[in-house]
Amino acid sequence: GLSQYSSDPRTEWDLSAYSTREQVLDAMRNLRYKGGNTFTGLALTHVLEQNLKPDAGARMEAEKLVILLTDGKSQDDANLAAQTLKNLGIEIFAIGVKNADEAELKQVASEPLELTVYNVLDFPLLSSLVGRLTQVLCTKIKEKSNKENADIPVNTGPQLSPTDLKISAVTSKSMHLTWSPPPRPPKKYRIVYYPSKSGTPKEVVLDGAVSSLQLSNLTSQTEYLVSVFPIYDTVVGDGLRGVTSTLPLSSPRSLRVSELSHNSIRLSWKAAQGATQYLVLCSAAPDGAED
């Protein structure tokens, strides 16, 4: 579904209006831009009261995701309206363009902000966000689907939800996760992790008495999304989510040249941690460069 807003929000189409990708793209091509003021709080209230209702196509069992796109600071209280949506389990992604207020974007968006807040300098740069945003959105929907397929109801009560996810000891191939268990210990934990830009999600199941995990065999210099779900006999608690990037591979250092002759050079360097082989490339300097 899509709504535009200035001082008066306007529904362009509801969730039930189109059923194919091409229909949505056609509607987008025919969209007329609505200029004017920036009453973001009013717009979020409009979405809640008009667009996320069953008669507008909202399904009770479906994950509710709202993507806010704004190019300015709100002229009313956007935070209060956003908190109302978030209290109802609706996740908000905030995308700022040009003159958007980043502090306000972070207030409006759902946690973790590393996954839900984006800001670009101009509208053409929005295309650079599509890949990552698509991956994050689709993964959230898949997580919801996995819970439903397990035929386990979701419980959002704080008694059943872990807190304070910390990611530490990050290397090029590993990271360490710790979290605070909920007041009521779960039977098991399900940890899902995957590269944010591509890749198949992997998962680990732990005993409910454990509240830490070492992730190994990761890809270097890659951003990973991590989710921790507590599993009980009859319910699944709210998941914790985090994001971090693995370090680059270690590099050789202190390259030294010695034993020069008319047709040979000896090179030496400090070893790169974990390296099993080295590739040495040599080429003649271009004309005019120092020998």
Structural class: alpha+beta
The averaged pLDDT comes out at: 87
User: What's the domain count?
Assistant: 2
Secondary structure: helix percent:
10-25%
Number of strands: 14
Query: What's the alpha carbon Rg, rounded to whole Å?
Result: 25 Å
Shape: globular
End-to-end Cα distance: 64 Å
Any guess at the CATH architecture of the largest domain? Answer: 3-Layer(aba) Sandwich
Major sheet strand order: 9-8-11-12
Q: Name the beta content range.
A: 25-35%
Domain Fibronectin type-III: 161-250
Domain VWFA: 1-133
Pfam families: fn3, VWA
Keywords: Extracellular matrix, Secreted
Model description:
Helices cover 21% and strands 27% of the residues. By secondary structure, the chain is of the alpha+beta class. It folds into 2 domains: 2-147, von Willebrand factor, type A domain (Rossmann fold, 3-Layer(aba) Sandwich), CATH 3.40.50; 163-246, Sandwich (Immunoglobulin-like), CATH 2.60.40. The strands form 5 sheets. Strands 9-8-11-12 form a 4-stranded antiparallel beta sheet, with no helix packed on it. The protein is globular and about 85 Å long. The termini are far apart. Its main location: secreted. This is COKA1 protein. Residues 1-133 form the VWFA domain. It comes from Steatornis caripensis. Keywords: Extracellular matrix, Secreted.
